[in-house]
Amino acid sequence: MREISIRDIPGFQIGQEEDREGATGCTVILCGTGATAGLDVRGGGPASRETELLKPVAAAQAIHAVVLGGGSAFGLDAAGGVMRYLEERGIGFDVGVTKVPLVCQSDIFDLGIGSAHVRPDAEMAYRACVNAEKGNYRNGNYGAGTGATVGKVCGGAFAMKSGIGSYAVQNGDLMVGAVVVVNALGDVYDWKDGKKAAGVLKEDKKSFRDACKVMYERNQPGGNRFVENTTIGAVITNAEFNKTQLCRIASLAHNGLARAIRPVHTSADGDSIYALSTGGCQADADMVGTLAAEVMAEAILVAVKSADAAYGFPSWKNLQENIIQSV
């Protein structure tokens, strides 16, 4: 098994666009020839569009794009720009008078980072599609990761900057990759050794609190403390699966979130993972799902380590030499 670029997986193009002043953006995964897809949502408060298409009982057997965006529910307008881009190129479900592109979308809550009134829209998403032609995907403070932060259980004053990350591997003919926007309430860990990579800072901004311990100590009902969170992502593969199998693969990929993020899947998160397949080779679904969890956990770590300090939030890059493990 060897590491590859997320761009190496055939059948997909990934493009990004962002508004740096507004601290938001979107990442578009195009699958112009159509991809079978599934979805598993573990958080209690998803901001999403057209996700009913991915249920095994739904008639649609393929979709044409997935959008990962900022802007919470306001940002769901971005999918319209992707539909326009695809319709102009004759891509979509043929209904006789036109072709209707099937575009699913999930968003993070980043409204409190830059401007609450700047969100991804159709024009931004259209530009992201054009950028996908050039393969402009990058890890870090780009696309939907522009306004992503982690470690917010004690408020923004003790949070850290995160971003978008990817990781992919090839095993024989099989390719499996993940793209993830890490916008977590709590702490992010290196899943391989258990060491904390980012999360809730102490007052000195050089050492960590433990997000779970903070929650346990408070243990009091209060207002909506979780409005700033949600981790969203997609697993993409060249293997052939049906929607039922891909929903299972997406479910198994959530094990990667559980390994790398604590706490995760809270009631007001929108933690959502898509799984998309282009059908270029044969593979066992349980094996791919197990591998997807590892790939997702690694992509989460990449998102944190690729992020630059921004909007007043320190990042792993500029604190790694000073932060000590303190839990």
Molecular structure report:
57% of the residues are buried. The chain is 23% helix and 28% strand. The two termini are 34 Å apart. Strands 1, 2, 3, 4, 5, 8, 11, 12, 15 and 17 form a ten-stranded mixed β-sheet that branches. The mean pLDDT is 92. The chain has helices at 78-88, 122-134, 211-218, 243-260, 285-306, 316-319, and strands spanning 2-4, 13-19, 24-41, 47-49, 63-69, 93-94, 99-100, 103-107, 149-150, 160-161, 164-171, 174-181, 187-189, 196-198, 232-239, 261-262, 272-281. α4 packs across α5 (285-306).
Order of helices and strands: EEEEEHEEEHEEEEEEHEHEEHH
Helical content stands at: 10-25%
Q: Low-confidence parts, pLDDT < 50 over ≥5 residues?
A: none
Radius of gyration: 18 Å
Give a short summary of the structure.
This protein has 327 residues and is α+β, with helices and mostly antiparallel strands. It is built from six helices and 17 strands. Helix 4 packs across helix 5.
Task: For this entry, give a set of tags.
single chain; 10-stranded mixed β-sheet; 327 residues; globular; 3-stranded antiparallel β-sheet; alpha+beta
Topology:
Layout (H helix, E strand, L loop, with lengths): L1 E3 L8 E7 L4 E18 L5 E3 L13 E7 L8 H11 L4 E2 L4 E2 L2 E5 L14 H13 L14 E2 L9 E2 L2 E8 L2 E8 L5 E3 L6 E3 L12 H8 L13 E8 L3 H18 E2 L9 E10 L3 H22 L9 H4 L8
Helix pairs in contact: 1-2, 4-5
